[in-house]
Amino acid sequence: MFYNRISKFILILGIILSTSISGHSWGFFGHKVIQQLAIYGLPKDMQKFYHRNMTLLVETSVRPDERRSSDPNEAPRHFIDLEAFGEHPLENMPHAWDAAAAKYSVDTLQKYGLVPWQVIKLKERLTQAFYKKDKDSILFYSADLAHYLQDAHVPLHTSLNHDGHLTGQTGMHSLWESKLPEQNLSSYNLKHQKAQYFKSAEQEIWEVVRASHALVPQLLAIEKQVSQNFTEATKYTVTERNGRSRRSYSDAFASAYNQALGTMVQDRMRASAEKTASFWYTCWVDGGKPDLSQLLATPRTKAEDKQLKQEQKAWKKGTLQEKDLLLTKIRISLMDVVEWIGTTLG
Ligand SMILES: [Zn+2]
């Protein structure tokens, strides 16, 4: 019996150690995966530079979220609560910052979110960085621009009801943007279109916001519908941490919900990657198409090119995860590990 338990323990530990432990919460996992996928959609002239710096770009894809704890002005840059702007907000909202600020006041915009304007601000900074051929700034602003743009693809980042808390569906935010991608990524088709040039970045980002917001009623309604097949006990998992109990959606509910949503999360992830590549590309074109190979400290090696080819092939076939070519793996927190071992050992 004891040996049985020990061998089970070793087996589990093996599984855990073979799974890299990484950040959390479009969730950290989502941002990092999208960042990597975006690189495969770039034209050759840009791709080799971005691929050389892929680890850095993937790691810093979540830097704006990390900044929230130290910068009180950071939070509103990640969302826009459209319902706060009255009836038909998308039709009535001026797209340009100055006009929107004149109509609603800067304070109101700061309260209800800045994400579309933040994207445009970063788009201009990245274009400048290309123009100056400043490698560090190119990487910095590529990562930041990508983050806010990816946030704008998450439906609940465009709603006052951002966690489902206004409709008795608290916990929806991390269910949709973290748990579902982590649980289902291997079944997603994430091959997206190649980067394209945007004549109007402003029009593009507002289209992203519109498409995200249009999905909010549907994702909330489907949650209610799926809930009919669950009881309170099967729908949620309650965990105790530091004397506090935390309620979140159960794995079984997340699976059923994902099934009912169809390809919604996959489609938003794919659109996110495609738009990230397109925004980077648009900035590069507007910044005078600098020769990025000159910004590499050493020329690319044959091995690097071979690796890129292999990754791109896997991306097209949808086997990046299966072939262990994703830089970011599913997160397992230390507490999950402890709980898991605890329940298994009984
Ligand atoms: Zn964010």
TrEMBL record:
Task: Give the highest taxon in the source lineage.
Answer: Bacteria
Which SUPFAM superfamilies is this protein grouped with? Phospholipase C/P1 nuclease
Q: Could you tell me the keywords of this UniProt record?
A: Disulfide bond, Endonuclease, Glycoprotein, Hydrolase, Metal-binding, Nuclease
What is the protein's given name?
S1/P1 Nuclease
Give the species this sequence originates from: Rufibacter sediminis
